[in-house]
Amino acid sequence: MSILPILLHPDPRLKTRAEEIGVPDAAVRDLAARMLDTMYDAPGIGLAAPQVGVLRRLIVMDCVKEEGAAPRPMALVDPAVEWVSEAMATYEEGCLSIPDQYGDVERPAEVEVTWTDLDGVRRRERFAGLWATCVQHEIDHLDGKLFIDYLKPLKRQMITRKMQKLKRERARTASA
To answer: What predicted TM-score, i.e. pTM, was given to this entire model?
Structure first.
């Protein structure tokens, strides 16, 4: 198991649109496995490649939270939202790149997404509930958008200041 370092906001790579992958190769499959290890270790339910400093269109997620339920790890290459429901849902979202900060974000309650799996097969699935929120949140990362971009400016600024302070503190302790 090799855990990747997760970038913290603010970082310009988190605001950059990621590049398409096309057909996944061994390097993409290895990155997906390492991203899943990192996500589970964090712990989180989703992780996008830009969050680990790789500006490619790859996300991983597993929203199974029920005790005793089998995990459902997913790796989506070049995912795209093809359809959104008119119904909306609000979830309190967080982000591994913005630790311990949360905000209510309203998104479509259901989405249909297409992607390429790690074997190069095109897939299509409709997601609802937490899965829909997670896949939209992670695809936003691929477009350089963070969940705090949906919040009111004052709340966004407050979270950004907290993250800048956290980064300074971590840099100080790392150099000590």
So the answer is: 0.95
pLDDT tens for residues 22-64? 999 999 999 999 999 999 999 999 999 999 999 999 999 999 9
Pairwise CA distance, residues 174 & 176, whole Å: 6
1 band by pLDDT with thresholds 50, 70 and 90: low
The catalytic residues are 138
CATH topology of domain 12-175: Peptide Deformylase (3.90.45)
* 54, 77 Cβ separation under 8 angstroms: no
Question: Where exactly are the structural domains of the chain?
Answer: 12-175
